[in-house]
Input
Amino acid sequence: MTPFVLACVMVAAVLHAGWNAVLRGGSDRLWSMTLMMIAVGCTSAVAAVFLPWPAPASWPYVAASALIHAGYNLSLVRAYRSGELGQTYPVSRGSSPVLVALGAAAFAHETLTAAAILGIALVSGGILSLALQGGRLRSGFLPAALLTGILIGAYTVVDGIGVRLAGNSLAYANSMFLLWSVTTPAVYAFARQRPPAYTRAQTAAALAGGLVSIAAYGIVIWAMQYDAMGVVSALRETSVVYAAIIGRVFLDERLTTRRIGSCLAIAAGAACLAYPVG
Output
């Protein structure tokens, strides 16, 4: 990986943690997510005028990714209703490579390397530490966070394959964003009668979060053209550390030594799983 691509993926990690902080801080997270998707849709619709369509071979991946992302949206909203950013975000991001590795071992008969076993231990220990508060297990956020992790793994693989068939990373990403953007507003229209009374500042923050999410994942899709999916994914998971810091600074969440240690363990474990040595 070149230094430029590396720097771009690290920026994407910060941006991803940032828009998740906007979502977690919203008073009505489903409405915040809906506003984000409206921003994504409007931006993607304008960009579609200037971008080519991706190659037809990638269209099934565009559609599959958009549907998986729709489930990811709803799962993430659910997770943030009961868990703090500094807890839920690391679990959802870190559990994905663990679940992929275990699934590959169980169903594809892949052998787990020593690095992979170490990665599973680090991520699992970090997740358990985040779920323990005051010596008691507080795991109400875990089911939705783990489901989010499964969906992250699914769309990462789908997009990693799709972008290589598309012929143009921007065209692929924009088409996926455009199709994805219509799902959450449709769910909101079905589930709710009217939007909440958001202030202009709250509305602007959510719309800006949608734009940031485009930049964050667009960079990741672009980077997967140039390096292995696992390597890009591992670098992106450094965002769990940024999320803990952002949660403390902007959401007044606790930033204990144990929480920082847990996030670092999850990030290191994700790296072991995605880019094993030997």
